[in-house]
Amino acid sequence: MTSTAFRNAVKLSHLCVERVVKPGDTVIDATCGNGHDTLFLARLVTGGQVLAFDISPRAIANTRLRLEQHGLSDRVGLYEENFRNLASYVTSPAGAIMFNLGYLPGAPRETATTAESSREAIEKAVHLLRPGGVMTIVCYPGHEGGLEEVRQVLIVTAELDQQDFEVLKVKFINQAHHPPLLVVVQRLEGGLR
Ligand SMILES: C[S@@+](CC[C@H](N)C(=O)[O-])C[C@H]1O[C@@H](n2cnc3c(N)ncnc32)[C@H](O)[C@@H]1O
Q1: Whether the predicted model's global pTM rises above the 0.85 cut
Q2: What is the mean pLDDT of residues 86-96?
Q3: CA dist., res. 65 & res. 73, Å (int)
Q4: Does residue 34 line the site of ligand 1, with CB under 6 A?
């Protein structure tokens, strides 16, 4: 029997994206890492395109390999780039933008996203969403600098105008240690004005 549990912030981010992405959409993975989220997006956008970014060459190579193994490379553009600059690659409004912050598993922790760059990237990227599109941000308070990063993510998303965006913070409050939390931003269709 398939479990209906939400399980964790990453799984929940996939559910949030799945419910809004339409065939033909452009979708963005801001931090492709080992390619799990990119593969998820590539499966979702039949007839559309995925733009996937990471500053780490190793992450780009890992993602490329994963996509090749699943025969889905043709619908994904892979860019070794800081997510601060992703807007210059985007030519149509996005149905989904996924940020999975933190560091590449198995790589030195210096490769982790930072509070300052994540804040700037999120602040810019939110304007790339099409009406009805969602941004998901998975944040890890447990690693060094992680708490400050969560704080900045919450500040920048809480400031978004409620007439134009819906913003949720989801936390698994009975999980041990420092479970990741999920912030979801949806651009409202037509706004509330
Ligand atoms: C938790 S991992 C992402 C996991 C990935 N989404 C997956 O499914 O495997 C975070 C990634 O963010 C990348 N990263 C760190 N700073 C970045 C930046 N400024 N711009 C883009 N990527 C960055 C790291 O190299 C790392 O691969």
Answers
A1: yes
A2: 96
A3: 9
A4: yes
